[in-house]
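#struct-pred
JK: can someone run the complex with iron/sulfur cluster? inputs below
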Amino acid sequence: MARVNQGQGMLIEVNNLKTYFFLDEGTVRAVDGVTFDIKRGQTLGVVGESGCGKSVTGQSILRIVPHPGRIVEGSILLHRYKGNGASETETVVDLTKLDPMGDEIRSIRGAEIALIFQEPMTSFSPVHTIGNQIMEAILLHQDVTKDEAREIAIDMLRHCGLPRADDVINRYPWELSGGMRQRAMIAMALSCRPSLLIADEPTTALDVTTEAQILTLMQGLQEEMGMAIMYITHNLGVIAEMAEEVIVMYLGKVVERADVDSLFYDPKHPYTRALLRSIPKIGRRSRVRLDTIEGMVPDPYNIPPGCTFHPRCRSFMPGICNVIEPQMVDAGGGHLVSCHLYDGKGK
Ligand code: SF4
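RT: done, structure tokens with the ligand placed:
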């Protein structure tokens, strides 16, 4: 497979995205004004606790937000490139403007933007072979014959580290181990060579050895294919391994964005610092207790005023943090943070 060098052009720009769920109990602002971008070939880590809106952000890009959720504001610009080098042309489509059931988003989903997630059994049908399902995805998006689709599927399975790919292609999903199924799902997702892979906790259900193998595999395939990855996880260890840029989400908002080294060595937001204190470190005495983040994630129907993290924050400043909502500011060198410790209000 030839290596792809796509440069660092823009791929996805998410601007002030708001995706709300309208329930009988009230409105849940799952994604509440999120802004970020991903460049071609880049890996963006999206990190936060359960319910912080990271998966719904991925679903919003693919326009698969489940009912009763919907995008209520903002834009998601997908930059598309055709041709090579000097003859390359760029067009931009706003995914929020597309009919989620329409032909255009269907042609983008699976082909230009693909998804892998925690449980492959939910993306594979148990009654069809792995091969038939991968071939169906290829035939849907590429102008190839059935035989060619079969060859592409076998080649992709082989690339994803499945031994005896020409045998695996005839297997049903339930005949494979968890790690093999995950590899097969990655093969299906990458069979159309997407420009963006959204990986939503893809290794959470796997043992650490298989997880390490899958992460190495994804890095290798990314280098070969030049795709960008949006890696969604609660696991900071995986983020450190995979991501170049990281956004930290809390209650539907991005609270910090930085390159991976700045985030780990110089975290700014008290929530990010608390997340980092809560992970085990090699060499730390086993009897030293890990920090936990104080308090609970607030009730989604009853979001605190001001900074939504203030009831749990060790640096809470009364009269400021519980009153004024912080905005994103540059804390230096493009390290963005949304906290009054950095916007002058706390001094
Ligand atoms: Fe803590 Fe205040 Fe910063 Fe919020 S704005 S994270 S409460 S210091």
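RT: quick notes.
The pocket of iron/sulfur cluster is lined by residues 269-270, 307, 309-310, 313, 315-317, 321, 326, 339-341 (CB under 6 Å).
Residues 1-5 have pLDDT under 50 and may be disordered.
JK: thanks, will look after standup
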